[in-house]
Structure formats: structure tokens, C-alpha cells
Amino acid sequence: MNSKESRHLQAKKRLALSIVVGACFLANLAIPSKAEAAQCKKKVGAYSISATKSLARKQARMVWRGLVAQRYGPDYVIWRLGKDRSSSCRRHKWVLYRCTVRAKPCR
């Protein structure tokens, strides 16, 4: 093997090593550490009854936040961070709406 082939082989090895190191770095960025992973609790449900559907849903989320704060503390009360969120509303006694919300509180 002459010196030109030897330099070419070394350059290929450096390139391969750079690709492996880069891939490992990117993989570490993509995988959250245990500390960064969402910490979720058991699913909590709440409901409210009101004259309008939007108000009943809003109040149900307020009740949900209160229950979550009592059970798990203030770090878990943000609705949009919850996992497996669901809400449903239906008529209740002709003129009222009953809305139910459920989610696993996370921080």
C-alpha cells in the first residue's frame, strides 16, 4: 500500500468515526433523560353543570385543577400538560349542560 492509499484509508476512518460520534450525539438529544421525562399521576376526573356548554367545560377544568392540587400539589394542575385528556358534554335537565373532563396530571 502506498502513502496515497494509506492517507485515503485514514481519511475514510476519520469520516466513519465522525459519523458515529455525530449519530451518538443526536441520539442523546432525541432521548429525554429520566429527569426531563414527564412525570404523570393517575387519571383524575371532574364535572360541572352550567347554563352553557363552554362555561360548563371551563368550570369542569377548574374543578379538575382543584382536585389535582389537593391530591398531587400545584405542580400538576396545568391541563394542557395532562396526558390522555378527554372532555364530554351533554344536556342536563333540558336547559343545562353537564361537562366531564378527565386527564392524567403531569408536570
Account of the 3D structure:
The chain has 107 residues and is an alpha+beta fold. It is 45% helix and 24% strand. It folds into two domains: 1-31; 44-104, no CATH class. The chain is elongated, with a radius of gyration of 27 Å.
What's the topology here?
Layout: H1 3-30, E1 44-50, H2 53-72, E2 83-92, E3 96-104
Characteristic terms for this protein:
single chain; 107 residues; alpha+beta; 2 domains; three-stranded antiparallel β-sheet; 2 helices; 24% strand; elongated
Radius of gyration: 27 Å
Helix and strand string, N-terminal first?
HEHEE
Structural class label:
alpha+beta
| Span between termini | 60 Å
Output the strand order for the largest sheet.
Answer: 1-3-2
Strand content: 15-25%
Number of domains: 2
Count of DSSP strands: 3
Q: Kindly state the mean pLDDT as a whole number? A: 82
